[in-house]
Amino acid sequence: MSTFPHRHLLDIERLSATDITAVLDLAETYAGQNRSANKKSDKLNGKSVVNLFFEPSTRTRTSFELAAYRLGSDVVNIDIEHSSTKKGETLLDTVLNLDAMQIDALVIRHAEDGVPQFIAPQMKASVINAGDGKNEHPTQALVDAFTMRRHKKTLQGLNVAICGDISHSRVARSNVYLLTKLGANVRFIAPSYFMAPSYGKLNIPTFEDMKEGLTGVDVIMMLRIQHERMAQGEFAVSLKDYHQRYGLDHKKLAAAKPDVIVMHPGPINRDVEITSQLADDPKFSVIHEQVAAGVAVRMAVLDLLLSGR
Amino acid sequence: MSTFPHRHLLDIERLSATDITAVLDLAETYAGQNRSANKKSDKLNGKSVVNLFFEPSTRTRTSFELAAYRLGSDVVNIDIEHSSTKKGETLLDTVLNLDAMQIDALVIRHAEDGVPQFIAPQMKASVINAGDGKNEHPTQALVDAFTMRRHKKTLQGLNVAICGDISHSRVARSNVYLLTKLGANVRFIAPSYFMAPSYGKLNIPTFEDMKEGLTGVDVIMMLRIQHERMAQGEFAVSLKDYHQRYGLDHKKLAAAKPDVIVMHPGPINRDVEITSQLADDPKFSVIHEQVAAGVAVRMAVLDLLLSGR
Amino acid sequence: MSTFPHRHLLDIERLSATDITAVLDLAETYAGQNRSANKKSDKLNGKSVVNLFFEPSTRTRTSFELAAYRLGSDVVNIDIEHSSTKKGETLLDTVLNLDAMQIDALVIRHAEDGVPQFIAPQMKASVINAGDGKNEHPTQALVDAFTMRRHKKTLQGLNVAICGDISHSRVARSNVYLLTKLGANVRFIAPSYFMAPSYGKLNIPTFEDMKEGLTGVDVIMMLRIQHERMAQGEFAVSLKDYHQRYGLDHKKLAAAKPDVIVMHPGPINRDVEITSQLADDPKFSVIHEQVAAGVAVRMAVLDLLLSGR
Predict the structure, then answer these.
(1) Do B192 and B276 sit in the same domain of this protein?
(2) How far away is chain C from the Cα of A100, in angstroms, using its nearest Cα?
(3) Does the residue B11 lie in any domain?
(4) Within a domain: B45
(5) What are the residues facing C235 on neighbouring strands?
(6) C93 neighbourhood in chain B, CB within 8 Å
(7) Is A168 an 8 Å CB contact of chain B?
(8) Residues B128 and B142 occupy one common structural domain
């Protein structure tokens, strides 16, 4: 455990392939523990984890909360939905006050890019990024890698297509960093208005056509369309047109390898970015496995960051 | 414990008299434990209980939460107040995602009838109905039966009057099923606009006159008037008139048996459906005992459903 | 432990100097425990603490929650933000229902003065006042005393200036009672529109001029300006003017003793009642120590009230 060389989990960008593998390996142990009758260990007994969410989240918050409980830690939830700061107190004062209470980990989600990275150097507690703006969502990428590895043994040489609203997606960004570090070949499939910004030196091939983009891939990662934005007329395309061109169904899937797996970080818009039929098809869809992996991966992260303290 | 033949607690309708008695008997044990200095056992150590409330509730949620803690379980609370689904995710996806996190029980309250019954067959976790629309609220009926049994030894042959806003009451429905299964004689007292729908083969006598209806009863169960609806003019009657005809007071109580007990599932509208004086009269009112029984009965339910897993 | 002669912590007014010292002494033990790797004991194992907050609070609620967890207690949080009562249920019914669930402590914050004192005599659980209107906030005053004692060895003879919006401050009131009981000399510094009401027999010297008021003091306690009220034109003074006259900075500080400490109960309005530079100056500011002390002091309070039960 003591070989994990980080105090915080801020993003995938600064992790090495070895770091990532350490998380995935330990998560395997916890995935087993989670299937047993008593899912609880006392590894983090007496620790205090605080979930500080400035954006609403049921799934991620619950996943972290269960992860902490199953390691024996206490958890305090703080939901601050409508403002990034309260009554004139700065964000930094808020988190430093929590730090003064001798908490061990602060799991933070914030609508602005870079918040976890900004606060971490000033905190004694471990800071875990649960999503910062459009930047990163590192634990989701670890969850996705865990799921891919289970099905494909290794990520080395794997062809992975990330499809949909890439431009606004912190999930996409974290996955790009992780997948390239572990030797997978990433490609983007999206209409121009959803295409990702450049990723510096990473030269990600892009496709506007689904059939072309899906040809020969091992893994398809569909992203959520925030169709509430579409409804506001931001995009000159109807949901129905979008679904026709970019919604994944069994027919489009035929271009991929026969043993392709289909992933989605959730929440799903059924029959928008993916058909209900495909999302529920156990032959291809590993969406529920991703959710199950979520708890195990977050247990591994908490353990690696906290158990040596 | 292993004799309880259900994976879920969805309603009273599908429980047998034996099932009900098993819950009540075990609840007696926990009622004793709750009066001791250390109220906690490790019976459900390592289990994860999720409270998923789509309608606000302080009392029922707190009661389930304390029940789970006192058996050593962890608890995650999810309050979704304003919508039945979130950001386009279906209710079924929400609960299946929680199920994928290897939770052991999902306690769910929802404004629509039949939601727990709909999701249960698809869940690995035990589903516990904490109130579904106007349909059922099974743990409340178990709490009420527990309280009656303590005071009247048996429910067999007991005359029980359910009074007030029966038509909208899931508490009334669950009680009707339970009381008839255990051999009590139920009657309804309500004005026509609050009278219950038919209960199939169960032929429940109805009374519009309180004095007539209360004559000779052993137990009176008052229901909450949602007077916010009255204020909106839905009923052609003022709260004062309603109180005069259907509000329980010591005078109307005289028609019942001398050792009658007065119940209310809460929250009480004092001096609407019941006078403050009577609600607080320890000679008749067992309202606080009902609340105390709530934790013990929910501990019994959680134990019976989860401890064999 | 058994020497603490109170069932509730309602205010500082009814505590003796001996009671206060008992809390502070025990808090020292817990401050040590909180700095260790395993911050958790089983002192209150099996107890149930309920946080019932009718006013929003992140810091105080989190502090009580961590305190309870670190003693092994379970915690249920109930946040009722917008109304003092719900759906017609009286406040008293709400708390008596919680009491019927055999909880051990009710930590309550309410916008109206006197609520904890009103409910306590009717409760079996220990009632802990986490702030009632403009009346008292006893645990904050204990936290402040703990912090002063650490720096100044004793409160006897200490000159303490309380500065700012004293008139609306429950923190000021609790501190006045505590400090005078322990032999400190309290003085107020505030503009007339913020000056405190009389404190009965306690004859508190008042100053309108900062320099005059700060001369020779050992401790300065700055209070939060609710500048949202100022913005509404309630005060004929701008924030900038206020800061100029009453905002604490290094220059005004020169009038105090050289080893003066600067305190603030939070949340801070930086550069309103205190400069950012001074708030962050470790030579004078003990603001983060106050927050850290918060958990230890609340552990001591919970232990003294509950462990003998």
Answers:
(1) yes
(2) 5
(3) no
(4) yes
(5) none
(6) 266-268, 270
(7) no
(8) no
Q: Could B39 and C76 be called an inter-chain contact, meaning their C-beta atoms sit closer than 8 Å?
A: no
Determine the residue among C33, C38, C59 to mutate to test chain A binding: the one whose Cβ has the most chain A Cβ atoms within 10 Å.
C59
Of A173, A132, A135, A165, the closest CA to residue A234 belongs to A165
Residues in contact with C40: Cβ distance below 8 Å, sequence separation at least 6, in sequence order:
A45, A46, A74, C69, C70, C71, C72
d(CA B248, CA B220): 9
Chains within contact range of chain B (3+ C-beta pairs < 8 Å): A, C
Mutation site, C79, C239, C291, interface A, largest A CB count within 10 A: C291
A96 touches chain C (CB under 8 A): yes
The alpha carbon of residue A179 is apart from the nearest alpha carbon of chain C, in Å, by 36
**Model's pTM, two decimal places?**
0.95
Closest CA to C111 of C152, C82, C72: C82
| In a shared domain, residues A168 and A282 | yes
Q: Is B97 on the interface with A (CB under 8 A)?
A: yes
What would the mean pLDDT of C71-83 be, rounded to a whole number? 83
Chain B interface disruption, residue of C80, C97, C126, C309, most B CBs within 10 A:
C97
Nearest CB to C100: which of B268, B272, B292? Answer: B292
- Cβ of B101 within 8 Å of Cβ of A66? The answer is yes
Same domain, C59 and C76: yes
Predicted pLDDT of residue B220: 98
Q: To the nearest whole number, what is the mean pLDDT of chain C?
A: 92
Domain that holds residue C166: 138-286
The CATH number given to whatever domain includes residue A101 is 3.40.50.1370
Pairwise CA distance, residues C209 & C212, whole Å: 5
Contact C291, A99 (CB under 8 A): no
With respect to residue B131, please indicate whether it lies within any of the assigned structural domains: yes
**Looking at the domain assignment, is residue A8 inside a domain?**
no
Chain B residue with CA closest to A70: the answer is: B46
Q: Which stretches does DSSP call E strand in chain A?
A: 48-53, 74-79, 105-110, 126-132, 159-163, 185-189, 206-207, 219-222, 261-263
Give C146-175 pLDDT, tens digit per residue.
Answer: 999 999 999 999 999 999 999 889 999 999
List the pLDDT tens digit at each of the 309 positions of chain A: 457 999 999 999 999 999 999 999 999 999 999 998 889 999 999 999 999 999 888 899 999 999 999 999 999 999 886 443 556 689 999 999 999 999 999 999 999 999 999 999 999 999 999 999 999 999 999 999 999 999 999 999 999 999 999 988 999 999 999 999 999 999 999 999 899 777 778 889 999 999 999 999 999 999 998 765 555 666 667 888 999 999 999 999 999 999 999 999 999 999 999 999 999 999 999 999 999 999 999 999 999 999 977
User: Is there a single domain that holds both residue B67 and residue B107?
Assistant: yes
The whole-angstrom distance between C15's CA and the closest CA on chain B is: 26
What are the counts of helices (DSSP H) followed by strands (DSSP E) for chain B? 12, 9
Same domain membership, residue C282 and residue C142? yes
Are B212 and B275 in the same domain? Answer: yes
Q: Is residue C34 within 8 angstroms of chain A, CB to CB?
A: yes
Tokens of C278: 């001074």
- pLDDT, mean of residues B123-143: 97
**Are A179 and A67 part of one and the same domain?**
no
Residue of A66, A267, A294 lying closest to B48 (CB–CB): A66
The domain total for chain B is 2
Q: Which amino acid is at C151?
A: H
